[in-house]
Design a protein that fits this description.
Layout (H helix, E strand, L loop, with lengths): L1 H17 E4 L14 E4 L2 E7 L12 H18 L7 E8 L5 H11 L6 E5 L10 E8 L6 E3 L2 E3 L3 E9 L2 H14 L7 E8 L5 H8 L10 E6 L9 E8 L5 E4 L13 E4 L2 E7 L15 H18 L7 E8 L5 H8 L9 E5 L19 E8 L1
Parallel strand pairs: 4-5, 10-11, 16-17
Antiparallel strand pairs: 1-2, 2-3, 3-6, 4-6, 7-8, 8-9, 9-12, 10-12, 13-14, 14-15, 15-18, 16-18
């Protein structure tokens, strides 16, 4: 009996170690229901960090703001026992693209060698009105990290730099070239972030994007119209690919039709990547019918749960989320509902308002405009 009890204790410790919250003793405090960092499946996931210091004071000037943001990321990484070199993937959110050269100078100082993969995009607003925000993923074992031309490789995944282009076919051609150089193809993608600048609609992008993927086997995807992109690009594609196709599997709830533009969720080994969901009600008379953000978040979480449950998971397995809110003034209202779906140890999170807020109006059929989207990463 004593040995059995010890075994149970050991198992409990092992399970806890696989999904561990990381919070620095002296770091910027979360402004919502999320964890600063979460360790799971051999990776550390880091919430989007802004330019306020641990006391909540906003630094002045883009150079100091970039350094503070990176220091906030560093505090979480080091609390997990890692270094900045362990970071394999980042998303850099920059309010003013004209400050890109200054940010790049600081970036190269912090990552002089073996830099992480990175996507840069310009949302309209970010929480606490920070002008720069950075989210990150780090690998726990540094010897598993390898930089290649176009991203960073770990034994099981490829994290891709943001690919910028003036049109969708050019972006995908560059994406194919990057993947082929690593011995894989578009079919190895498990998740893509597709960011669109003003002037390129989702409909037009999808017309081209769908030509490159098998219906029912496309990667999961978040498609976000943003305020601006670097180099005046119209489209940016970044994401994650799996090396071994045997570990890749599409998860599709029965109420979702096969698509050539996005699968609901895709497995890679023990990580599940789920497409950004909104309050869209599938099936007959489909559409978004709730106007207020609270009801929309509830429906979005219901839609995400469909994918998680189809994969045999639930919200307790989620380690990272991205929330795209069309009106950041509703940040606390969104938080109040979002928090109900997670325990006392919620996943990491990055929240932005991608474009200028507009007045929400119902169409002739009574359908409401989308107020938010949420994508998730879960670990078994």
């Amino acid at each position: 009996m004593k040995h059995f009890t010890l075994l149970l204790v050991s198992l409990s410790i092992a399970i806890a170690a696989e999904h561990r919250v990381v919070a620095p003793a002296a770091g910027a405090k979360p402004v919502g229901p999320y964890s600063p960092g979460v360790v799971a499946g051999g990776y550390l996931y880091v919430s989007g960090q802004g330019a306020r210091d641990p006391n909540g004071v906003m630094t002045t000037g883009i150079e100091a703001q970039t350094r503070q943001t990176l220091n906030n990321v560093r505090s979480i990484v080091e609390a997990a026992g890692l270094t900045m070199e362990h970071i394999v993937y980042t998303q850099l959110y920059l309010a003013d693209m004209s400050q890109g050269d200054t940010v790049e100078k600081i970036w190269r100082e912090v990552f002089p060698l073996n830099a992480p993969a990175r996507a840069v995009l310009g949302p309209r607003r970010m929480p606490t009105e920070t002008p720069v925000e950075i989210s990150a993923v780090a690998v726990m074992d540094l010897k598993n990290k390898r930089r290649f031309d176009g991203g960073v490789a770990t034994p099981e995944r490829l994290y891709l730099d943001g690919i910028l282009a003036g049109d969708t076919p050019t972006a995908i051609a560059k994406l194919q070239k990057t993947l082929m150089a690593e011995g894989v193809g578009l079919g190895h993608l498990v998740f893509t972030n597709v960011y669109l600048a003003p002037g390129l609609t989702i409909g037009k992008m999808n017309e081209e994007y769908a030509k490159y993927f098998e219906k029912g086997n496309a990667p999961a995807r978040a498609t976000i119209a943003v305020h601006s992109l670097p180099q005046r690009a119209q489209i940016e594609i970044t994401g994650v690919a799996v090396r071994d196709l045997a570990t890749r599997r599409v998860v599709r709830p029965r109420n979702m039709a096969p698509s050539a533009t996005a699968s609901p969720c895709v497995w890679t080994s023990d990580a599940l990547y789920c497409s950004a969901k909104s309050a869209f009600i599938p099936g007959p008379n489909s559409g978004i019918y709730a106007e207020d953000v609270e009801t929309q978040v509830r429906q979005t979480m219901r839609n995400l749960l469909d994918g998680l449950e189809e994969a045999g998971l639930n919200f307790s397995h989620v380690v990272a989320t991205n929330v795209y809110l069309d009106q950041l003034d509703e940040f606390q209202r969104m938080n109040a509902i979002y928090a109900k779906y997670f325990s006392a140890t919620p996943p990491t999170r990055t929240t932005v308002q991608p474009v200028e807020a507009v007045e929400r109006k119902r169409d002739a059929e009574g359908r409401a405009q989308m107020a938010e989207q949420i994508s998730v990463v879960a670990v078994r």
